[in-house]
Amino acid sequence: MSEKIKFEMEFPIQASPQLLYQYISTPSGLSEWFAENVNSRGEFFKFIWDGSEEEASLVSKKSGERIKFRWDVDEGEPYFFEIRIQVDEITKDVSIMIVDFAEEDEVEEAKMLWENQISDLKQVLGSA
């Protein structure tokens, strides 16, 4: 398996950090925009799209700020995906920061997928 490349993306979003955190950290919140259905048992999350399932482990989270997952297929690898809420100290503008990894020839596709996911999140939040 070839080495994956880390990439980061920033999406300005019109929502309070407290509300956003509910959408990025809970199965019900993630089911609204990230996957069709999300189930969790402790630190293990199951994401369901079009009948296919992907499992991920919760690596870490900081209440109100960020959540980090590792796909089970990447077990033992340094790869993860993180969704972080960033608030500009001066303007109070809120952004969602995405950190993810993809194969070199899949980075653009992965970025487009995140753009679509965040677009769905903005629609759910009414901030599109």
Automatic annotation (TrEMBL):
InterPro entries assigned to the protein according to its UniProt record, in alphabetical order: START-like_dom_sf, START_2
Domain of life of the source: Bacteria
SUPFAM superfamilies in UniProt: Bet v1-like (SSF55961)
Protein name: SRPBCC domain-containing protein
Residue ranges of domain START-like in the record: 1-126
Coiled-coil blocks: none
Pfam family, one: START_2
